[in-house]
Amino acid sequence: MVLVLAGGAGWWLWPRTAPVSVPVTTSASPLPSLSVTVVPVQARPLARVVFGDGSVVPWQELVIGAETGGLRVSAVLVEEGDAVRAGQVLLQLDASVATAQRDGAAAGLQEAEAALAIARSDLGRATQLSTSGSASRQLVDQRQAAARQAEARLASARAALAEAEARLAQATIRAPFAGIVLRRNVLAGAVPGLGTELVRLLRDGRLELDARVPELELSAVAPGQAVRVTHGGREIAATVRAVAPNVTAESRLGVVHVALPPDSGLRPGMFARAEIHGDAAPALVVPQEAVVFRDGAAAAFVVEDGQARLRRLDTGARQDGEVEVRAGLAAGEAVVRSGAGFLADGDRVRVVPAVGG
Question: Where is each YknX-like C-terminal permuted SH3-like domain found (predicted)?
Fold first, then answer.
């Protein structure tokens, strides 16, 4: 019992030491810097590129129909896909009735010519007799009236013959210009009605691409500009023929008519894409790797006093690894090229030379 108390007293009488205090550093350590490379924003001419797509259509398409109804088709001389020349016979209609009418009109013309010759001869004799006093003036007037009637009948006969020949010509349907037969809608033996479509022609075999372009891009498109048309793996060099004057209200798209070369290999109804190359204009550009996306919008970092500052960008065309900057940067500003994807606004950075620079 004595030992326990002594031990307790010893514990109470043991000298207590003061706690060791740890010095607190009040100065903050500098944040680490990220190493980046920068490149200046450059101003240079940039060719404007406008993109569009659409269907291949005929440059000019002509529907050829029957000018007269009720005639049987006696021969069809072309097939779909045939190339035809101007004036070539496409179809032949039964011309038996028209031929008979033409022959009758020709005979009527001969009869009118003979009647006029007799009337003129009678007028000449009456005039001679009147001069010698052997014929009255009344007879001369009658002969003159008969001659004028004969002339009128001759003119009518000539018109009837011309009409008959025109009807006969309508039985032979010819190509009004050179082209390609897109469609043939009749067979031999059919009796088409007046105006019925018989053949559809593509004029001169020329095709176009009706490329649909956003309304805000139409101002950069003009006739004569070069176009690269793509269809699958095929690339075709073409040119802008015209720009349609109207824009579709529902889609806000305009149509650019792109003239295709004869050897394009495309066909009406195919779908293709167009890359229209406009004239070069001054623009600000930065390397593509300098452009990052924050909150779904394009941006870039500029270096100011050793810190990366985020700038929102309005970008345009992308060509040869460069991006057009329409707003957000000024020429000569240093933008982060390497390491931009790892930065946040306000990060401290250390600019280092580019590898190989």
Answer: 283-351
